[in-house]
Amino acid sequence: MINIVPPAAIFIIGAFLIPLLKGRLKSLYMLLLPALALIDLFNMPKGKYWIIKFLDYNLIFGRVDNLSMIFAYIFVLITFIGIIYALHVKDDMQHIAAFCYAGGALGVTFAGDLFSLYVFWEILAIASLFLIWARRTDSARKAGFRYFLWHFFGGICLLAGIILYVHNKGTTEFGYIGLSDLSTYLIFIGFCLNAVVFPLHPWLPDAYPEATVTGAVFMSALTTKSAVYILARTFPGEAILIWAGAFMTCFPIFYAVIVNDMRRVLGYSLINQVGFMVCGIGIGTQLAINGAVSHAFAHIIYKALLFMSTGAVLYQTGKINGTDLGGLYKTMPFTAVCCIIAAASISGFPLTSGFTTKSMTLTAAAKQHLPIIWFMLYYASAGVFHHAGIKVPYFTFFGEDSGIRAKEPPINMRIAMGIAAFICIFLGVYPYPLYKILPYPVDYVPYTAFHVLSMLQLLMFGALAFTLLILSGYYPPEKREACLDTDWLVRMLGRRFVWLCQKPVVAFGNLIERISLRTARASSKSLPGGVMVCEDWIDKFYHVGLKSTPTIIYNWVKHLRTEMGYLPWNLAYVLICFIGFLFIMLLWR
Amino acid sequence: MKKRKELSFLDPPENRAKIRRYFYIGLLILLILDFFVPKHGHFSWEIAPEFFAVYGFLACVTLIFIAKALRFFVGRKEDYYD
Q1: Do B45 and B70 have their domain in common?
Q2: Mean pLDDT of successive 10-residue segments in chain A (589 residues)?
Q3: Dihedral of the CA atoms B17, B22, B23, B26 (nearest 10)?
């Protein structure tokens, strides 16, 4: 019999006890929570349990199999590392948000029905929002607001899809879904938004660089990878994902070259990496799914390490732009080494975790005879080395000396980075513990002579290109600028729409007012007897009909602003539209 | 004021040149090894001589030039959205 509690509950309920504790006891307690969750995971048998009857449906909080188990392990592990990294933070809100966030991710991982999945999905979005707002700067506030609108949109799509899906199928349980009718497309859009599939990706490079130093570590690990998990669960082998994933690997690398904020570079490279996983899920063979899942596992560690080392630089110097940094290896050698290890891992150098995991997806694409996809993935492999592997360490720690002489970060940050760096190397040298817990049996040998040589050639000659371009001065210099992305459409067209409603519509209303006044005056001169009737008529028509319509539109729309104070208004609009939409859909059926 | 210990082995240009020289030698070794390693691939071009070296180099060069072009299209002033 199951007498343990769901690991998500340990995190979410445990989070709210943090403010009650102080000092060392608090640190100890925060380290204990992931340890407890890990013990919990070890004792969870496979199967479906923690089923609660809710109305006519079953809520399933424990669907445990190989696929959910491996994601749960890595989520708990990264929470542990992230909490060590964040131990020096005095702000309790950040700790609570981080644990709720990780709890949400675990909840998504083990959810066996769509309703509980949706609840945990929203916990993910809201908890991560607080990790952005905790930065307490104006730009963080605005970015958090945009982040929340994106996720609110995704959540609404998901909810609409779930309601239609449950209405069609009569059950809330889910396994493989697959694209078929409208409900599945809506669910798919909801998942894809969190998996940063183009064109639903701009929230990530927009919001992650604005998050707190420690918050970004959790964010880089949890939201996108829980979406990868859920896609692997519900839409494996969906052909559209192959192309979506391959495109995701390619387009961000160009952005990453020109973006200045180092954490924004990492944000774009995060999209690139998730692209490999999405592509693997789309290919859908056992090797490809294994590749996607193991890549997600390794990726969480090295991406968190990249965010930790750049975060340490931000924490120590207060600067993160490539234009302001350089030469930091002199006083922060440990951080520099950690960053290089993570950079080597993300590029897939032999003896690092990227090599033993990402190459599975590449091989899977070759085995399915997808030549164009294969070329795109290898192009992206060379590209990711270029921006995340060389650009980030080079412009931060080497490059032109900026004159900054920052100390190494606090000891807890260094310990967390050390653990993550160790895992990166360990999984690269000895990947078999990871291979053993993958969803399908692994029949794959990463270390063949040809494999090592081809990867080294690809990467080192990419490095040669970088060297030659830097020496010849062709390399685009770091520049302070904003880069437009698909969110331009939302941000600028949204503003234009509000402007359109406010300016021309109101002008139109004023015009009508003037015309009707003139008519009234003219009629009162020519027809003194009929004045009363005419005025009465005009008054009625023009107040109810023409004048008030623009005013009503104006009054409705004036709240639709992309500014913080208008958040409740925006949400109310989306909700009303959603309910209307759902109503029409259900009637139409 | 006490001077903090700091590394500076990359400052002298001769050290940088030395590192570059080792790097070029490494590249040469990789090119030579290509002829001695047993190859296995799913596509015909995978086993072509020096394919990955050429592809890696070309990929990174085109990457930079496309990124430069992209900057022309999407680059705006830093306060563009404000």
Answers
A1: yes
A2: 76 90 89 91 86 81 90 94 92 91 93 91 92 90 87 89 87 86 91 91 91 93 93 92 93 90 92 94 92 94 94 90 85 92 92 90 90 93 88 87 84 94 93 90 87 91 90 82 80 75 75 75 66 65 60 70 67 77 71
A3: 160
| Nearest one of A223, A237, A249 to A108, comparing CA atoms | A223
What gap in Å lies between CA A203 and CA A224, rounded to an integer?
12
Cα–Cα dist A14/A281, whole Å:
34
What token pair was written down for A539? 């008054």
Question: Is B46 found in the same domain as B35?
Answer: no
Q: Which residues of A73-84 are buried (b: 16+ CB within 10 A; e: fewer)?
A: bbbbbbbbbbbb
Q: How far apart are CA A476 and CA A468, in angstroms?
A: 13
Do B21 and B47 lie in one domain? The reply is: no
- CA–CA–CA angle A385, A388, A393 (5° rounding): 110
Distance of CA A507 to the CA centre of its chain: 42
Shortest Cα distance from A417 to chain B (angstroms)? 21
The three-class DSSP label of residue B75 is: strand
Q: Is residue B21 part of a domain?
A: yes
C-alpha to C-alpha distances, A22 to A19, A25, A215, nearest whole angstrom? 8, 6, 21
The partner residue sitting opposite B67, judged by closest CB among A258, A401, A463, is A258
Q: Point out the residue among B10, B39, B78 whose CB comes nearest to the CB of A450.
A: B39
Local structure of residue A390 (DSSP, 8 states): I
Give the DSSP letter string of B3-61: PPP---TTSSHHHHHHHHHHHHHHHHHHHHHTTTS----SSGGGGSTTHHHHHHHHHHH
8 A C-beta contact, residue A338 and residue A309: yes
Q: Do B30 and A255 touch (CB under 8 A)?
A: no
pTM comes to 0.89
| Same structural domain, B46 and B67 | yes
How many domains, in total, are found in chain B? 2
Return the H-helix or E-strand segment holding A338. Answer: helix A333-347
B62 plus B50 within the same structural domain: yes
d(CA A204, CA A481): 18
Do B23 and B48 fall within a single domain?
Answer: no
SS3 per-residue string spanning A214-283: CHHHHHHHHHHHHHHHHHHHHCCCCHHHHHHHHHHHHHHHHHHHHCCEHHHHHHHHHHHHHHHHHHHHHH
The reply to whether B33 falls in a domain is yes
ipTM of model: 0.90
The answer on B34 and B45 residing in a single domain is no
CA distance A201 to A154: 11
B33 and B46, same domain (yes or no):
no
Contact A465 B61 (CB under 8 A): yes
The answer to whether residue B4 sits within a structural domain is: no
Assess contact for A499 and A537: CB atoms under 8 A. no
> Which domain, by its residues, includes B27?
10-39
Partner-chain residue, chosen from B60, B71, B77, that has the shortest CB–CB distance to A382: B60
| φ/ψ of residue A62, rounded to 5 | -140, 85
**B2 occurs within a structural domain:** no
